[in-house]
Amino acid sequence: MSYLVLSVRPYSFEADDGRNLSGASVTYVDLEAETRPEDGSGYAPLTISAPTRVASDFSKVPGLYDLHFTQRRGKGGRPVLALGGATLERPVDLTNL
């Protein structure tokens, strides 16, 4: 499934417990998601954190990407969505809209 990736912003900081955390925030739009009338209209951007190794998958931004989602165990055993990789389908030029 194709997602329109709008931005990839790397981050790196020291957590309160002294651990170094790094990765990237990936902002994308699911072009096939249905918008409920009570939520408004249009496409609401979504943001997910990705490990640094995945951030390098984004060679052209903005672009249409096949995003590879995985799950990991979260608090209380609840599933948490994670971004495991991305494949560029085609770059997108937003300057000529």
Note down, in words, how this protein is organized.
This protein has 97 residues and is mostly beta strands. The chain has one domain (2-96): OB fold (Dihydrolipoamide Acetyltransferase, E2P), CATH 2.40.50. Helix content is 4%, strand content 55%. The chain has 1 helix and 5 strands; from the N terminus they run E-E-E-H-E-E. It has a 5-stranded antiparallel beta sheet. Strand 1 and strand 2 (20-30) form a beta hairpin. The longest helix is centred in the middle third of the chain and has 4 residues, at 52-55. The model has no long low-confidence stretch (mean pLDDT 92).
Task: Considering the chains and any ligands shown, give keywords for the structure.
97 residues, mainly beta, OB fold (Dihydrolipoamide Acetyltransferase, E2P), 5-stranded antiparallel sheet, 4% helix, 55% strand
For the largest beta sheet, what order do the strands appear in spatially? 3-2-1-4-5
CATH class equals Mainly Beta
Q: Span between N and C termini?
A: 23 Å
Mean of residue pLDDT? Answer: 92
Strand runs, count: 5
> Looking at CATH, which topology would you report?
OB fold (Dihydrolipoamide Acetyltransferase, E2P)
Secondary-structure-based class equals mainly beta
CATH architecture: Beta Barrel
SS strand fraction: over 45%
Overall spatial form: globular
Give the radius of gyration.
Answer: 15 Å
Number of domains: 1
Helix share of residues? under 10%
Query: Any low-confidence stretches, pLDDT <50, length ≥5?
Result: none
Major sheet characteristics? 5 strands, antiparallel
User: What is the overall number of helices?
Assistant: 1
> Which H/E pattern describes the elements?
EEEHEE
